[in-house]
């Protein structure tokens, strides 16, 4: 007997997902019991961490009766097998950390790296994606400091659900109400689906600015900080991709969980990039590769004595993207274009000449975005004529928009 595929139910995205549910001291804490119950019904494995203030509003028993698991509260439980590492094992063992409800206090602690109880410590330990559902009085929510703390966290990749506008427990009306359980579940559903969007795909992402030696102590480089490449790699990892991160020197630490390859010069980057090229599905060349290198290889430091001038002869470096464009089979190639004028026309030309699928254009004549800055504003051009412009935003949000475009085009390519 055959069963039509439309009758075979798709596995629930929550099935077997390990969700760490942090519950803090809000009058809305009772709603977390309903949320935990819905998550368990959808097949998730829920571990609850209840703060000391949270215990004032709801008992651990209310949660453990639903999750059939012990509720954790203390960094130093009385009979722990591995108490010293409890915060690490809890953080690393989860697929997602959800703080529901989150007070202004836990948000402030997260924003500033405080770790004075189990929940704040495991949040600092990091690992899985973090989702925060704030709940507080309107004036606390609208305080400049709370808004700044939330922006800081958003820039670091934390996601927020709500809050909503409505009647508040204090009797006032306004924004600050905890997002309803059902809506929260819907949003987490989308998030979990996104976390597997790039499963099975292998990315090569380059970042940083190459260094071309003049002598053993001096070199030619550029202003690239490496931030865009780092955020792009983190975004690809968050969506389930495997990432080879090929880095030239940069000002920020490379993303954790990527396969790291470190190089200095354009020539070294060229060799490594082409070596791994056959095994990857997508290449994102966010590195600022030097276009020229000093022709002469000098083994000793050039002395300034008896020298009125120094003339360097520079030779062109190999164009890595163009080389890949020539030899590509299945790969989706993404380039970057930094220009000071006629940015779009030049980028279109580059896309054509180098055989790219997509190019990300930024105008480096602006001081408020681009090199070194945390912010950027880009135009994304596609080979087929498609175009998307982003607003000026933090580079982490720009990397999300770029990755959305890559994902959309990859699924177009894969659909019959
Ligand atoms: O031609 P232009 O240097 O403006 O192109 C920029 C794009 O090409 C970037 O994505 C950069 O990483 C890549 N590039 C390269 N090899 C070079 C120079 C730039 O792959 N030698």
Automatic annotation (TrEMBL):
Q: Which cofactor does it need?
A: FMN; Mg(2+)
Reading the lineage from the top rank, the first entry is Bacteria
What pathway does the annotation place this protein in? Cofactor biosynthesis; coenzyme A biosynthesis; CoA from (R)-pantothenate: step 3/5; Cofactor biosynthesis; coenzyme A biosynthesis; CoA from (R)-pantothenate: step 2/5
- Which parts of the sequence belong to the Flavoprotein domain? 17-176
> Which Gene Ontology MF annotations are present?
FMN binding; metal ion binding; phosphopantothenate--cysteine ligase activity; phosphopantothenoylcysteine decarboxylase activity
State where CTP binds: 291, 301, 318-321, 336, 350, 354
InterPro entries reported for this sequence? CoaB-like_sf, CoaBC, DNA/pantothenate-metab_flavo_C, Flavin_trans-like, Flavoprotein
Mind telling me which SUPFAM superfamilies this protein's record contains? CoaB-like, Homo-oligomeric flavin-containing Cys decarboxylases, HFCD
| Active site, renumbered | 170 (proton donor)
Write out the GO biological process terms. coenzyme A biosynthetic process; pantothenate catabolic process
Signal sequence residues = none
List, for all copies, the residue spans of the domain called DNA/pantothenate metabolism flavoprotein C-terminal: 198-408
Instruction: Name the keywords, alphabetized.
Output: Decarboxylase, Flavoprotein, FMN, Ligase, Lyase, Magnesium, Metal-binding, Multifunctional enzyme
Q: What is written in the cofactor note of this entry?
A: Binds 1 FMN per subunit.
Where do the segments described as Phosphopantothenate--cysteine ligase lie? 203-416
PANTHER family per record: HOMO-OLIGOMERIC FLAVIN CONTAINING CYS DECARBOXYLASE FAMILY, PHOSPHOPANTOTHENOYLCYSTEINE DECARBOXYLASE
Function, as annotated, reads: Catalyzes two sequential steps in the biosynthesis of coenzyme A. In the first step cysteine is conjugated to 4'-phosphopantothenate to form 4-phosphopantothenoylcysteine. In the second step the latter compound is decarboxylated to form 4'-phosphopantotheine.
HAMAP family linked: CoaBC
Q: What is this protein called?
A: Coenzyme A biosynthesis bifunctional protein CoaBC
Query: What is the organism field in this record?
Result: Candidatus Hakubella thermalkaliphila
């Amino acid at each position: 007997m055959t069963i039509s595929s439309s009758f075979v139910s798709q596995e629930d995205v929550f099935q077997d997902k390990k969700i760490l549910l942090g519950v803090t001291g809000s009058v809305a804490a009772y709603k977390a019991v309903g949320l935990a119950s819905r998550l368990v019904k959808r097949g998730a494995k829920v571990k609850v961490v209840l703060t000391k203030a949270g215990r004032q509003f709801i008992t651990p028993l209310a949660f453990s009766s639903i999750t059939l698991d012990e509720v954790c509260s203390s960094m130093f439980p009385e009979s722990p097998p591995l108490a010293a590492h409890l915060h690490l094992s809890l953080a690393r063992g989860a697929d997602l950390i959800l703080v529901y409800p989150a007070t202004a206090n836990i948000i402030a602690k997260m924003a500033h790296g405080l770790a004075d109880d189990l929940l704040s410590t495991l949040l600092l330990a990091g690992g899985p994606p973090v989702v925060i559902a704030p709940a507080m009085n309107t004036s606390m929510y609208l305080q400049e400091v709370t808004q700044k703390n939330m922006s800081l966290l958003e820039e670091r990749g934390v996601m927020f659900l709500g809050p909503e506008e409505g009647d508040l427990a204090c009797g006032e009306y306004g924004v600050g109400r905890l997002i309803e359980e059902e809506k929260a579940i819907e949003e987490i559903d989308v998030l979990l689906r996104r976390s597997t969007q790039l499963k099975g795909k292998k990315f090569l992402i380059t970042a940083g600015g190459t260094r071309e030696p003049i002598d053993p102590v001096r070199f030619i480089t550029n202003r690239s900080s490496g931030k865009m490449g780092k955020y792009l790699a983190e975004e690809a990892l968050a969506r389930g991709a495997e990432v080879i991160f090929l880095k030239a020197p940069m000002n920020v630490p490379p993303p954790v969980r990527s396969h790291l390859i470190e190089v200095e010069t354009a020539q070294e980057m060229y060799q490594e990039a082409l070596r791994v090229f056959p095994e990857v599905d997508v290449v994102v060349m966010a590195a600022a590769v030097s276009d020229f290198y000093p022709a002469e290889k000098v083994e000793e430091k050039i002395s300034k004595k008896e020298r009125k001038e120094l003339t360097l002869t520079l030779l062109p470096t190999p164009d890595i993207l163009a080389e890949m464009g020539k030899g590509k089979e299945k790969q989706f190639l993404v380039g970057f274009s930094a220009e000071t004028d006629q940015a779009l026309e030049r980028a279109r030309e580059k896309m054509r000449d180098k055989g790219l699928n997509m190019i990300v254009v930024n105008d480096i004549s602006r001081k408020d975005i681009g090199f070194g800055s945390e912010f950027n504003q880009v135009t994304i051009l596609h080979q087929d004529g498609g175009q998307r412009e982003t607003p000026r935003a933090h580079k982490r949000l720009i990397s999300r928009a770029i990755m959305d475009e890559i994902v959309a085009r990859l699924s177009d390519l894969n659909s019959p």
